[in-house]
Design goal:
- With 411 residues, this protein is an alpha+beta fold.
- Helices cover 35% and strands 24% of the residues.
- It is built from 12 helices and 18 strands.
- Strands 5, 6, 9, 10, 11, 12, 16, 17 and 18 form a 9-stranded antiparallel sheet that branches. Strands 7-8-13-14-15 form a 5-stranded antiparallel sheet, covered by helices on one side.
- Helix 1 (3-21) packs across helix 2, helix 4 (84-94) runs parallel beside helix 5 (115-137) and helix 6 crosses helix 7 (163-177).
Length: 411
């Protein structure tokens, strides 16, 4: 590790603590991270304590153990799970603490593994995590998701480079996405967050009744709930601390109406799911529910996601990202949703964020659904934006107003 890289990693950790998490004096911090991310975890811990954190705990994971489980565990054991990790998360939420998730898993980790077993494990874990997921999706606390470059991930993204060059190139790309290549990254993030906040405010004022997507293979109308709320950049939490949930982030997003989605949408980027790629796929909707699925690769795995529960077949998020975003401009397929979703406008099947409908962050399930919010154990983002996609806002009287043309904002 060179001194230059150590300085960059420290800057990254500072952004995570100050911009992403916004750690406050006296807060606890729980970090979930793969073993390979230990250098970043240590730097985050340093900056968290410097910001006044009271206690930093870490839950470590070795992704290879998951592959070993699929290869060697009894075939009847995949519907079992352990609760201690999720309980630690709930304990942190109850204490008003912050949660950081670091990911950098090999995109091919589960290549060749039975998709049915993968679906069983994901369904089991998603249901076990639901109490924590519901709290986080309601922004009960300040939380953030970030990435960490690993050798296996870098080899997937840059297969034609030498191993050492691959990892350096991926780190350069990650640092660029979080604006570490600017003279003052903190100032750059403040300006970027102001832009996202301004765009969200414009959309909140418009209160469109629906959005219309058109482009190659896509003709989709996404209805929006009454009093829907767009979020971009820092978002307030129930404990009064704003946070940026993803670093990087280029999106403004809200909740669609679970029963008012009709038409067909074609994904514009592959979707990596636990080391398996779903490629060239499209979904058709009627009255909010997926009615047809087609994919050149990974169709069975995609269907298993949609069949996880009733809400998994409906949309829970609509997010707008300009095609000219810094991540899109880099021209890199990261094979990682955290990065790829910020290169493209995207949708998500499954659970909606409760703070995306005004006044319902703490509402019960029935009230949330009655207002158009979607409930599910799953939340599956997929990319639908490109330089060929147009998006219109549809007003209550049916007037169509241009929002995006060829993937770019028009206002």
């Amino acid at each position: 590790m060179t001194p230059e890289f150590e300085r960059a990693l420290s800057q990254y950790a500072e952004l995570i603590v100050k911009i992403g998490l916004n750690v406050q004096p006296g807060q606890r911090l729980l970090i979930r991270a793969p073993l390979e991310a230990a250098p970043l975890v240590r730097q985050v811990t340093i900056h968290a304590y410097q910001a006044g954190a009271h206690l930093v705990d870490v839950i470590w994971a070795d992704p290879q153990l998951l592959r070993i489980r699929f290869q060697h565990a009894p075939r009847n054991s995949f519907a079992e799970h352990s609760d201690w990790g999720w309980k630690a998360g709930l304990e942190t939420v109850d204490a008003g603490g912050a949660i950081l998730s670091i990911n950098g898993t090999d995109p091919d980790l589960l290549k060749g593994i039975d998709p049915g077993l993968i679906a069983t494990v994901q369904r089991t874990e998603s249901r076990a995590a639901l109490p924590l997921s519901k709290r986080i999706s309601a922004d009960a606390i300040n939380w953030c998701v970030v990435g960490y470059a690993t050798a296996a991930w870098a080899a997937k993204v840059f297969p034609d480079m030498a191993p050492g060059e691959q990892l350096n190139r991926l780190w350069d790309a990650i640092f660029s996405t979080i604006r570490l290549d600017t003279p003052d990254p903190l100032a750059a993030w403040e300006a970027h967050n102001e832009d996202l906040t301004r765009r969200a405010a414009y959309l909140n004022e418009k209160q469109y009744d629906a959005l219309r997507y058109t482009g190659p293979g896509t003709d989709l109308t996404v209805g929006l709930p009454e009093n829907h709320h767009w979020i971009g950049g820092p978002a307030p939490t129930a404990i009064g601390i704003s946070n940026v949930a993803n670093l990087p982030t280029e999106e403004v997003f809200t909740a669609p109406h679970r029963e008012r989605v009709d038409g067909t949408v074609r994904a514009t980027m592959p979707l990596n799911l636990r080391g398996n790629l779903i490629e060239n796929f499209s979904l058709s909707f009627s009255n909010g529910r997926v009615t047809n699925v087609s994919a050149e690769k990974g169709e069975a795995l995609l269907r298993s996601q949609i069949e996880m529960d009733d809400g998994a077949s409906r949309l829970g998020e609509v997010a707008l990202v300009p095609h000219s975003s810094a991540i899109s401009h880099a021209g890199i397929l990261f094979y990682n949703t955290l990065y790829d979703e910020n290169a493209s406008s995207h949708l998500a099947l499954g659970r909606a964020y409760r703070n995306c409908i005004a006044g319902l962050a703490d509402a019960g399930d029935e009230t949330f659904m009655a207002h158009g919010g979607n409930l599910s154990a799953n939340h599956l983002d997929f990319m639908v934006g490109s330089g060929e996609i147009d998006i219109d806002g549809i007003t209550a009287d049916g007037t169509r107003e241009p929002l995006m043309r060829q993937g770019e904002w028009v206002y």
